[in-house]
Design a protein that fits this description.
alpha+beta; Heat Shock Protein 90; 5-stranded mixed β-sheet; 6 helices; 7 strands; 22% strand; globular
């Protein structure tokens, strides 16, 4: 794609509107390729056990707000809604950069699979001994027999309703490896035609 549109720009004297369209496609494809390469590198390091945790204390709520702000473009351009109503400060100790990647990938996954209402829910349950984070879509759901498979890097959903809005297909495998590295409990709750909830727990 990058080569084709670059050659189009090189070989033809395009009008301004056509030129801008071609350049935007080139930029989007470079961004997509960058995400793919970074995901592959990150997964390789995680699976090779050469990644270590950089533990620090930070506000989980502020981190989630920052990530959702990056997704606002989908609200403006594609009418997605992100429901997150937890306002209190919530200090946790974890690898901030890796947890940011977890939440980013899970929200991106929810965008790809949520229903026609285009709503994604982010819920926080602050319990006595743990903090539970849930990211929920309203899509078609996942069969019980497939629940464990979705974390596999080579697993491909047979469902044709995936939007392919963002992501590379190995994001959930990265998420799984980060959970294992932290020692977090994690899982999926899903019901056919009612959506799926991806969750993980941080012990206090």
């Amino acid at each position: 794609m990058i080569k084709a549109y670059a050659e189009l720009e090189r070989d033809f004297d395009n009008q301004k509107e056509k030129h801008e369209n071609n350049m935007n496609i080139i930029i989007e494809e470079v961004d997509r390729l960058t995400i793919l390469v970074n995901d592959i590198l990150n997964l390789s390091k995680l699976e090779s056990n050469i990644e270590t945790l950089n533990l620090e204390e930070f506000d989980l709520i502020k981190l989630i707000d920052t990530i959702l702000n990056r997704f606002k473009i989908f609200s403006y351009t594609k009418s997605f809604k992100f429901i997150f109503e937890y306002h209190d400060e919530l200090i946790i100790k974890a690898d901030k950069q890796k947890l940011e990647q977890v939440i980013y990938n899970l929200v991106g996954n929810a965008i790809n699979y949520t229903g026609s209402d285009k709503v994604v829910y982010i819920n926080i349950k602050n319990e006595k001994k743990k903090i539970r984070v849930e990211i929920k879509d309203t899509g078609k759901g996942i069969k019980d027999s497939d629940l464990d498979k979705v974390w596999d890097k080579y697993y491909k959903s047979e469902k044709k309703y995936k939007r392919n809005t963002i992501g590379t297909g190995i994001g959930l495998s990265i998420v799984k490896n980060i959970f294992i590295l932290h020692g977090f409990k994690y899982g999926i709750i899903s019901a056919i035609n009612k959506g799926s909830t991806f969750w993980f727990e941080i012990e206090k």
